[in-house]
Amino acid sequence: MAFEDYKTKDAVIVVYTGEGKGKTSASVGLLARALGSGWSAAYIQFIKHWNVGEHDFIYKIQPVFGKKLFFYKGGKGFYDAGDLSAKDVSEAEHKQAARETYLKAYQCATSGKYDIVICDEINNAVHHKLITKSDLLKLIKDKSPKTSLCLTGRDFPEEYLKYADIATNMTKLKHHFDDKYLANKGIDF
Question: Could you tell me the pTM of the whole model?
Answer without folding.
Answer: 0.90
